[in-house]
Amino acid sequence: MEEKGSANGSPAVTKSSAKKSRVPPQSSVDTFAVQCNECFKWRTVATEEEFEEYRSKQSEDPFVCKKREGIECDTPADIEYDSSRTWVMDKPNIPKTPKGFQRVIVLRKDYSKMDVQYITPDGTRIRATPGIITYLKEHPEYSHVSPSDFCFASPKIQTASCKTYGTTRLGSGVPVAKVSSWLPLLCSAILTM
Asked: I need a surface site. Which of 33, 105, 162, 163 has the fewest CB within 10 A?
């Protein structure tokens, strides 16, 4: 990929921000859940697309249990916030991923944070906004898609839900001695209280 300079002389797009992927990265998230804005119980959602729908409208139309057929606030929670899995919280109001693109969330090997990448319809992996801008300019068939339709804000790992061994915890700035890697990750929408 050709590098283009920005106003300050640094490259606007680098080979690391947009490249073809032979094997797309697999998302580290295995379960999606949202929290009811009234009873604060967690409800699992069947698909990432359904999760993105709730997340994209969180401020204007907060999730409540009665949006799910047969579910009321007095129904037991689908899942409890505990340390049986590692929870990561996505910011609310992140736009839905444009049709044909895929938003992939990957946990770093050192468990320090999550990285967001987008896989384009032709398999290009993009890791930053400048890569999206370049890709959209080079592919006029996506003129209906805007760079603002993409968000690289990574979900925050909820360290209270992480099982650790030793005395260090995620996010402390100190390398984690050993984190239990079997814990599945759960992505959920942050709700304002």
From this structure: 163
Buried/exposed code over 110-131 (b: 16+ C-beta within 10 A; e: otherwise): ebeebebbbbbeeebbbbbebb
Report whether 28 contacts 107 (CB < 8 A): yes
**What is the CB neighbour count within 10 angstroms for residue 73?**
12
3-state secondary structure 151-180: CCCCCEECHHHCCEECCCCCCCCCCCCEEC
Asked if 43 and 78 touch (Cβ cutoff 8 Å), the reply is: yes
138-163 residue pLDDT tens: 999 999 999 999 999 988 887 766 65
Q: What is the DSSP letter of 82?
A: S
| Cα 33-59-158 angle, rounded to 5 deg | 40
Question: Residue type for 77, please?
Answer: A
Whole-angstrom Cα Rg for the chain: 18
Q: Give me the torsion for CA of 180, 157, 85, 76, rounded to 10°.
A: 170
Q: What is the residue whose two structure tokens read 């990265």?
A: 25
Per residue in 52-84, pLDDT tens? 999 898 888 989 999 999 999 999 999 888 777
What's 29's DSSP letter?
E
pTM here is 0.69
